[in-house]
Amino acid sequence: MIFPCEDTSVTKLEHSDLYLVETSDLLHPIIDDPYIMGKIACASVLSGIYALGVAEISNIRLFLGVSSRMELNDRNIVMPMVIRGFRDSAKAAGTMVRGCQIIGNPWCLIGGTASTVCTHQQELVPPDGATIGDVIVLTKPLGTMLALTVSQWMEQPEKRGRLLLTITEEEAKKAYCRAVDSMVRTNRVAAVLMRKVRP
Fold this sequence. Notes:
Keywords: ATP-binding, Nucleotide-binding. By secondary structure, the protein is α+β, with helices and mostly antiparallel strands.
């Protein structure tokens, strides 16, 4: 059984009625706070499994590409904060980081893999099961990346002036905070609710 997923795989294990669910994700930093960025990366890694209605994660591994362009002192401060944010998010989701791969790289990259085993196919909610008339429930607001971009542009004088014609600085800050709050929140509750309301 293979579901049409972008970054998550479901594999029936050979000798039992068990299914291995695995997902992976990799991000470049999208905000300046390393601790919060670690939390965002973890929530993003877990989202592939939650999207199938599975709320319990057995294992998560952290992947960290440490930028070779960063000064050593900066790396020694920033990278532990990223790792702590990632671990704290995993713990809040009821799992723990059981491994970490760190590589040197010109760019900073944060991500990982997550996996779990389901005891039968009925534990999974296929992503292609929607039909006409179904209600779509958004678990997070749309436009989070736009809110982050607006926040960055507010610091660039040539773009700031044009932005202030359509949005106030206070509105931009509020949108940024709401976007970050939604990105650090996992979809674990949504996964539980998917199973409760599935036909």
